[in-house]
Amino acid sequence: MTKVAVVMGSTSDWPTMRLAVKQLSELEIDYDTKVISAHRMPETLTKFGRDARNGGYNVIIAGAGGAAHLPGMLAANTTLPVIGVPIKTRTLSGMDSLLSIVQMPGGVPVATMAIGDAGAVNAALFAAAILAVTDSRVADRLQNFRSAQTRRAIESEATLDD
Ligand SMILES: Nc1c(C(=O)O)ncn1[C@@H]1O[C@H](COP(=O)(O)O)[C@@H](O)[C@H]1O
After folding, report:
1. Using a 6 Å CB cutoff, which residues line ligand 1?
2. Number of domains in the chain
3. pTM over the 0.90 mark
4. Domain CATH code at residue 110
5. For atom 17 of ligand 1, which residue has the closest CA?
6. ipTM of the shown complex
7. Are the C-beta atoms of residues 64 and 119 closer than 8 Å to each other?
8. Which SMART domains match (predicted)?
């Protein structure tokens, strides 16, 4: 059984991170949600990262805002793929989150998504793509998602005014 961990630095990240969870649900992918802050809960963070693989997770999605060290610190503690979601911030519009997540030192990668809601959805889709390498049922559901999206995009042309 494949499973994704959806981790966020604060409950205040939930309005964005719930979109990742919604997308995982739509693809019938099993997940757990966790609120773990690298800054506020450093020991919990280390333990979660170290135990994640044996805990049955295949991929970690990690969303954080501002000085967003959570995805990088999870990646430092596991060799599972970590997908980072930069949360949009009021002060710097999420550029702070983006740069904190994307600028990892060589050797410890985090797959960084776009800032905000679209990034959260894409994190779920990217997690699905990773799982689909070895799980043909997830691959089929992902292909169906793409096909439906293509159909909607083509049909949307008909809604243009003259
Ligand atoms: N970036 C981090 C980390 C971390 O990286 O460990 N822990 C909390 N945070 C972020 O702080 C922001 C404000 O959090 P609060 O709303 O709890 O003050 C959130 O976006 C959270 O992800």
Report:
1. 8-10, 12-13, 37-40, 64-70, 87
2. 1
3. yes
4. 3.40.50.1970
5. 10
6. 0.98
7. no
8. AIRC (SM01001)
